[in-house]
Design a protein that fits this description.
9 helices, alpha/beta, three-stranded parallel beta sheet, 231 residues
Length: 231
């Protein structure tokens, strides 16, 4: 049994668990709940009508949020030569090749996104067991395996967020900060939901979005009505 804090219990008491809220109303409610002493992330979780065991039903990608993430995104890049120089100029926190792979293999994971040029996959490929479980393994689908590493660095630094289905068929992402206005949070969440909706695999039958929940990182979840968001 999870032992929740007094603040969490006070917040949870203000949420109607039997109700499905309009998005704007849900975000306003979240911002009104008792808050911790730090600026929480606002998170979205979608339970998809997919079979995560089937490769043709996996959902993975990245989307640029119109209002950014409200946090510093730490980006490392695998590149050499002119691409490495361009990545550094674009704001990459660390750039390297074989030595960077060794550093990560040694346990260094102080970053949020890994970007690589295709020719560096010979170094990145061996990091699958380290980066995969954390959702940080580069992929062409998410725009993190690309010949234009500098452009990718700028996009992720500006608020591009990666996502992929987990073992339970869920997609989760942090899409801003509690200090954002309701309108800015709504813009980010709607952009994310629309993007994921448009990635529906052809093999999926029936309802694609089974449940949508928004919350602060330390607060209770609030169910959101997709039809209203989608309108």
């Amino acid at each position: 049994m999870v032992n929740h804090s007094k603040r969490y219990l006070q917040a949870a008491a203000k949420v109607d668990r039997e109700r499905i809220y309009d998005l704007k109303e849900a975000l306003a409610l979240i911002k009104s709940l008792p808050a911790p002493k730090f600026d929480e992330s606002i998170e979205v979780a979608i339970h998809l009508g997919v079979d995560p065991k089937k490769s043709d039903q996996l959902v993975r990608g990245a989307v640029s949020l119109p209002k950014g993430l409200g946090k510093t995104v730490r980006v490392v890049v695998f590149a050499d030569g002119d691409k490495a120089k361009a990545a550094k100029e674009a704001g990459a926190d660390e750039v390297g090749a074989a030595e960077l792979a060794d550093k990560i293999m040694g346990g260094w994971l102080d970053f949020d996104v890994v970007i690589t040029s295709p020719d560096m996959m010979k170094h990145v490929g061996k990091l699958g067991k380290v980066l995969g479980p954390q959702g940080k393994m580069p992929s062409p689908k998410s725009g993190t395996v690309t010949p234009d590493v500098a452009a990718a660095v700028k996009e992720f630094k500006a608020g591009k967020v990666e996502f992929r289905t987990d073992a339970g068929g869920n997609v989760q992402a942090a899409l801003g900060k509690r200090s954002f206005s309701v309108d800015d949070l709504q813009a980010n969440v709607q952009t994310f939901l629309e993007h994921v909706s448009n990635m529906r695999p052809p093999a999926v039958k029936g309802e694609f979005f089974r449940k949508i929940c928004v919350s602060s990182s330390m607060g209770p979840g609030v169910l959101v009505r997709w039809e209203v968001v989608h309108a």
